[in-house]
Specification:
It is built from 1 helix and 33 strands. It has 465 residues and is mainly β. It holds the Pfam family Glyco_hydro_32N.
Length: 465
């Protein structure tokens, strides 16, 4: 058995996967595409994998959704989105070839269409957008279309680089086929922007982007074809290349705004000793909302709770610097803690996962109110010398008058996802080696404290077939 393969996070049947692409829901059925190499567990020969789900938790793999059209010089189908319109679904994606069609200076935007939601044809009108649209404006690494409906037609944003800065560029269309360039939607400070996408909340909008590091967002207002009056510049997830990248979003038939993100495999490092036939997973789908402060609230879709199995519940646990054992042994679980801020203000709190009996292996989730940080400390997560052990750290949300901190942790074989007050999120990978690295423990950094409530659910495996 592959001890590192997740049990309830989405993975491809085998071989490589990266960015989630073009999620949508139609007639109650959720669809998900993803970047996929169907022949090797490494990046290359990028297709779109395809899966469906009734609930965003259990998935059925379908045949590959889209393959490169080698006969037309295409060698990769990079990321993109889907549009449901008049009963037909249109997939937008970045088409990459070789030579003049390279990713840096020769990308094109193509479409594919389907009515049976299983097969997709690329019409002869491709490409629907080329770099020539921009005139003298020089844009590099132009990719990852995201399309939405407006009162006067359609809008698309694409990521890329202009004048050595990452940007989102915006386009409009009346028919999803003929597009015109409207300008720079927003120019960032990072060197690249990938996978831009947005949600609208009345007159507010939130723009997500992946800057070759932790996924970020900007909440502001759309005026004409620009994002203005930015209220908050936040982080979607602090994992970045160590745990969460290339997010994309959609609105389901219940009006929920849902975000998917890719959990990379780079933390395996070099010379990983086990020959695994898969690479990459997806984070739990997250429901997103906008707070009055301009910050995002993010929490796993409630459907995840259907996987909860045996429950262990504890109240008012006294803890000190010596680890307190929960008595639970699991490598696939959800853990929910409620802690009074005042109780741990001076002491801090560490929750150890994947802890071995001998103490040599443990992954530590550390709450530190003095420094306003939440950290996943991986320094003792594995005895393997070359897996990544750098920490993943984020800033704690503001107290906003609440005394309790809600800390929610999902562990799944080699994945750790952490949510603090449904606002600060951290995701990463760990690779414990010892057979009994499955303990859950609590301790303070100094002094004594009380944890108001601790619940642990063993998680059943999702049906991913």
């Amino acid at each position: 058995m592959d001890r590192y393969r997740p049990r309830y996070h989405f993975t491809a049947p085998r071989n490589w996967m990266n960015d989630p692409n073009g999620p949508f829901q139609l007639n109650g059925e959720y669809h998900l595409f993803y970047q996929h190499n169907p022949s090797k567990p490494e990046w290359g020969d990028i297709h779109w994998g395809h899966a469906t789900s009734p609930d965003l938790v259990n998935w059925t793999h379908l045949p590959v959704g889209m393959a490169p059209s080698y006969e037309h010089g295409e060698v990769h189908c990079f990321s993109g989105c889907s549009v449901v319109h008049d009963g037909e679904v249109t997939l937008f994606y970045t088409s990459i070839g070789e030579g003049e069609r390279n990713a840096a200076t020769g990308a094109q935007q193509w479409i594919a269409r389907g009515t049976d939601l299983r097969t997709w044809r690329k019409p002869d009108i491709n490409p629907v957008l080329t770099l020539e649209l921009h005139g003298d404006l020089e844009i590099r690494d132009w990719r990852d279309p995201y399309v939405w409906k407006t009162e006067d037609g359609w809008r698309m944003i694409l990521g890329g680089i202009h004048e050595e800065k990452g940007c989102a560029f915006i386009y409009n269309s009346e028919d999803l086929e003929k597009w015109s360039f409207q300008g720079i939607f927003y120019k960032g400070e990072e060197w690249i922007w990938e996978c831009p996408h947005l949600f609208r909340f009345g007159d507010k909008a939130v723009l997500f982007y992946s800057p070759s590091g932790p996924v970020r967002y900007l909440s502001g207002t759309i005026s004409g074809d620009k994002l203005i009056d930015v209220q908050k510049h936040g982080t979607v997830d602090h994992g970045g290349w160590e745990g969460y990248y290339a997010s994309t979003g959609f609105v389901d038939e219940n009006g929920r705004r849902i975000v998917h993100g890719w959990i990379p495999e780079g933390s395996r490092g070099e010379e990983f000793p086990e020959n695994l036939d898969w690479a990459g997973a997806l984070a739990l789908p997250r429901v997103v909302d906008l707070k009055p402060s301009g910050a995002l609230s993010m929490s796993p879709v409630p459907e995840v709770e259907t996987l909860r199995g045996v429950n262990y519940s504890f109240k008012d646990i006294a803890i000190g610097q010596t680890p307190v054992l929960s008595g639970v042994q699991s490598t696939s679980f959800e853990c929910l803690l409620e802690i009074d801020r005042k109780s741990i203000e001076a002491t801090g709190l560490t929750v150890s996962l994947f802890a071995s009996d001998c103490g040599k292996e443990h992954t530590d989730v550390c709450l530190n109110l003095a420094s306003h940080t939440i950290t996943i400390d991986r320094s003792n997560s594995s005895l393997l010398p070359k897996v990544h052990k750098t920490p993943v750290q984020g800033e704690l949300p503001a107290a906003d008058g609440t005394e309790l901190i809600k800390l929610r942790i999902f562990a799944d074989q080699s994945i750790v996802e952490v949510f603090v007050d449904d606002e600060t999120c951290l995701t990463t990978r760990v690779y414990p080696t010892l057979e009994n690295s499955s303990g859950i423990q609590l301790r303070t950094n100094n002094g004594e404290a009380v944890v108001s409530s601790l619940q642990i659910w063993e998680m059943k495996a999702a049906e991913i077939r």
